[in-house]
Design a protein that fits this description.
Structural class: alpha/beta
CATH superfamily: NAD(P)-binding Rossmann-like Domain
CATH topology: Rossmann fold
CATH class: Alpha Beta
Strand order of the largest sheet: 3-2-1-4-5-6-7
Shape: globular
Number of helices: 8
Oligomer: single chain
Number of strands: 7
Length: about 260
Amino acid sequence: MSDFRSVKGKVAIVTGAARGIGFGAAETLASEGVHVVMSDILPILDESCKKIQDAFPDVQVYAKSADVSDEMAVKALVDFTVEKFGKLDIMFNNAGMHMDTGAVWETDMAKVDKILGVNLKGAFHGCKYAAQQMIKQKSGTIVNTGSFFGKVGHALSATYGASKGGIHTMTQSLALELAPYNVNVNAICPGLAASEMHWAFVEEDAKARGITFEEMKQLELEEIPLSRYGYGSDMAGVIMWLASKSGEYVTGQLINVNGGLDFT
């Protein structure tokens, strides 16, 4: 069988991997024979790692706690991975956060620093140290989690949107910088995902509208042409394509993985 679409034996780091999109992506990568280093700051990381390792004993899965806003913690994460496997094929910079910041004129700047520190600088750190290793290898795939909120402004989401917009332009800059080294760099832009972060949004919106959580979910699903939320496995499908020979010519792109919710 051709290896045109195969990722078996590759090594990946997934940040924000304890739950949600990150966990689903790590699980799917492992199911396809990818060795995975899962990273997060949540205490459930070890438990999440064990679930995947038990389900797929033929691959190696490690848990490595790291706060992505801490540059040296991300360097240590990449160093750990290379020490274990001797290479790094896939860097999925997925860790992110959101908090209510209100309108720009009422935003607490400490919240701005926090969101940009995790979302933008966290991805930047991952890109920086993955790039250093991939330049040595002259191969690799970097995928950042962007957002349709980073493509078009949304009221009351200036800080979160700015963090994702920054990821988008950084992704394209790095794609050009790494092209001579046979490394492709792209961002995926989820829409409405079945994740704990998104459920918090749903809860807030439901309260504001005076409806139930389930009623709010139904309203959202009616907006998605494919009529379902996105999962980590959907993101992993794109990541595996980009990391295989079949996707190696794709770089610098902001790829919507959103069920048709948004085409920008």
